[in-house]
Amino acid sequence: MPAPAQRRIIFQHIDEPGYTNDLACYLRHGGYANLRQAVTRKPEELIDEVKKSGLRGRGGAGFPCGVKWDLVDRKSGKPIYLVVNADESEPGTFKDRYIIHQDPHQLIEGIMITCFANNVKQAYIYIRGEFPEGARILEKAIAEARAGGFVGPNILGTGYGCEIYVHRGAGAYICGEETGLIESLEGKRPYPRIKPPYFPAVLGLYQCPTIVNNVETLCHVKKIVEIGGEAYAKIGTPNNTGTRILCVSGHVQRPGYYEFEVGKVTLGELLNEVCGGPLPGRRFKAVIPGGSSAKVLRFGERFKGKRKIGNDLVDYDWGVEDVPMDFDCLAMIGSMGGSGGVIVMDDSVDIVAALANINEFYAHESCGQCTPCREGSLWMKKISARMVHGEARTEDGALLKSVADQIAGRTICAFGEACSWPTQSFLAKFGDEFKAYPESRKAAAAPAVPLA
Amino acid sequence: MNLKPETLARIDEVIPHYPSKRSATLPLLHLIQEDVGYIPQEAIEWVAARLELQPINVYEVVTFYPMFRQKPIGRRHVKVCRTLSCALLGAYRTCETFEREFGVRRGEVSADGEVTVDFVECLASCGTAPVVMIDDALHEKVDVARTQELSAQIRREAAARS
Question: Quick check: B130 and B91 in contact, CB under 8 A?
């Protein structure tokens, strides 16, 4: 059966010849019609549409967007802030980059609809420091939107006013964690806050109720207002509604971004048909399905169990290729959909070196606030780097796992899990290669493509 | 602090974006680094005074975020992405080639002061790996041949300047 066709909602105009990122082009393509329509409706109705849509956050956790909005404290009398998480930094993820660079007004329209629905008067776009061009494009687009009456003190003559400012990060992955991001926006080190009590919906930016949404999520909000929550919920699969941008990188013929209805494409269809399969003469060995902290899958392993389809419990027996790319199925097999970043490794890859590469990333990015994470991520990096560059020992795999097992669940934020899942899953799936590494490394030639 | 008038104008413009002055710490540091090339000690004190903070409040920010630097670097900054997707397609070779081309090791400034080569973490362009940023510009699919072309271009641009 051939792979289903892409369904481009968010990426409708990405890479379209002649489509430019200025306001005039956006308006020619019907831009800001959804905002015009939204401001004539009651804010509660808009929140209801988003709830009915079943939209789940596209940043990594997959938390229902309508629920997030519902949790906002609207009785405190304090201002409500919207913070747009444009810190796109989960390795393997590169979707927001194209929205920001090629279609910034789509994002701005989504932001303004969200602000109107939630009575937000001030929004900040927190964009990663490594997107200087993206920050300039957004600033120019906001200025255009302001001049057009779509952003600013009196939006479309309604008397409702809302401002957007762009705030640049400076190269720290932890700023993608929403409370770390808020600290950073307050001008501090981005140390994540402890929850409770610091749920952003209640005590967020400046201790005020705050909504933090991912770039792609806000673009979906615009679409939901356009077609209605019920119609949107018919796209995708139950509990995994809408479309999702899957970013494929690593060892495939055609890496890139592909937008599908959630759950309609399997991992095998995505990699073999959409992305053209492995490189010549190679076979797939491993895949990380949802950004580098998602647990790795090994080609050849099987997943069995029961799952709910409608009201029935149905048996499933899947190889890696059979897994539908949605939040629930990837969670069922012990990994996650995360941020949609799919990293593919073929049989040329030294799996220990690949883990050493990932561990170096997390050791660099741990904020250092919690001891298990700060020390653990560093030791996992040191041990795996020593295996690759120095003396590897048969017991190193067990040692790595024991370090990882002491981090998850013992930290303020989810970085503890994010940095230990790669080690735990690489050991669980490729423990044989770690055990044999002292011998196999001696026998192997210097790698053509070093990874660490 | 000797900042350009346009930097000072942009500093005045950005501070009122926030209800709390402290929030302007990162924007001010970015503006100063774009102007001066790095964050000198006196800038930390200047920002603290401007935002009514203690110098330690600014210093702890400068030392945390990888993009802020306390020493000058080369006129051109070559940042090679090191993270997994880029490494799988040869980022280590790319970085080594840049190092050879300019006779530096990562983190160092070339003898003529022209180039600093750094390995950095994920630049969020994994589908066009390996990627490199030279100053603010992203370059995609930078294999060894492309690395040599980009190096030659940097040398040509340096020669044209002198």
Answer: yes
